[in-house]
Amino acid sequence: MSKQGRINKITISEVLKMKQAGEKISMLTAYDYSTAAIMDEAGVDILLIGDSLGMVVLGYDSTLPVTMEDMLHHTKPVSRAAKRAMVIADMPFMSYQVSVQEALRNAGRFMKEAGAHGVKLEGGEEVAETVRKITSAGIPLMGHLGLTPQSVHQLGGYKVQGKDDKTARKLMEDARALEEAGAFSLVLECVPAKLAGEISRALTIPTIGIGAGVECDGQVLVVNDMLGTFEKFTPKFVKKYAELSKDIQAAVGRYIDDVKGGTFPGKEHSF
Ligand code: KIV
């Protein structure tokens, strides 16, 4: 089943109810109006303007160069497209680490200027005070633990996290700290499936997994990965639901042939 056929807007209380009812939450990234409108119409629960924007849309090697202005620019069209889905914007690197005040101001910009319904940021206990401040200002906040791409240089690469007892315990503590600080949900990225299941059962807020197994309360993928339009690399956790780059190449090839052969535009396309 793809189309959910439900007209009620997804809010934080809806996603909490979904966890309580055992209904899985679907989340995909979105960066533009047309794609976001298609995904919203298909019934996806949450649209995330991820800072993966840096890699799949802007062509950087990591998420680190992405700015607040980049994120606001791409959040606006997604907010305009979303009729049902909840719209969550990623806070980019250095938009929330310098001070709690700056974090709150930037989180507020996503709500005021870009029409987001909430924000996401990376980190555990070390960002708990920031999470508390943002959520007490009435801004829904999604946490992000495990492989946190903004810390790629500290983590030493894009690796599975929480593989030994010590780091697994730390992830559990971080998850509890985020819930306690007011996060309404939590992304678990590249975490062993068993640990992700344990964290999911220990929390009342839903977990959204990416490379974290089937026991998470929901799943997220980068839309360009699952549609097959980003081919630079494909992580193991990606399931490709389409191979659109092949379709696009074939279509563009036919267009070039038509233009070169003088068969486009035809009479029906001319005035
Ligand atoms: O930036 C992003 O797309 C993300 C998701 C992969 C969770 O953070």
Structural write-up:
- This protein has 271 residues and is α/β, with parallel strands linked by helices.
- The chain folds into 2 domains: 12-240, TIM Barrel; 243-271, no CATH class.
- It has helices spanning 12-21, 33-42, 53-56, 68-81, 100-112, 128-136, 152-155, 165-181, 193-202, 223-227, 244-261, and strands at residues 25-29, 46-49, 86-90, 118-120, 141-146, 185-189, 207-210, 218-221.
- The relative contact order is 0.12.
- The protein binds 3-methyl-2-oxobutanoic acid.
- Residues 29, 48, 50-52, 90, 144, 187, 210, 220, 222 line the site of 3-methyl-2-oxobutanoic acid.
Biggest β-sheet: strands ordered side by side in the sheet: 1-2-3-4-5-6-7-8
Shape field: globular
**How are helices and strands ordered from N to C?**
HEHEHHEHEHEHHEHEEHH
Percent in strands: 5-15%
Q: How many individual domains?
A: 2
> What is the CATH domain class of the largest domain?
Alpha Beta
Q: What radius of gyration results from the CA coordinates?
A: 20 Å
CATH topology of the largest domain: TIM Barrel
In total, the number of strands is: 8
Under the CATH scheme, the architecture of the largest domain is Alpha-Beta Barrel
The small molecules bound here are: 3-methyl-2-oxobutanoic acid
Number of helices: 11
| Average pLDDT level | 96
For CATH, the homologous superfamily of the largest domain is named as Phosphoenolpyruvate-binding domains
Structural class, from secondary structure content?
alpha/beta
Determine the N-to-C terminus distance: 43 Å
Give the biggest sheet: 8 strands, parallel, barrel
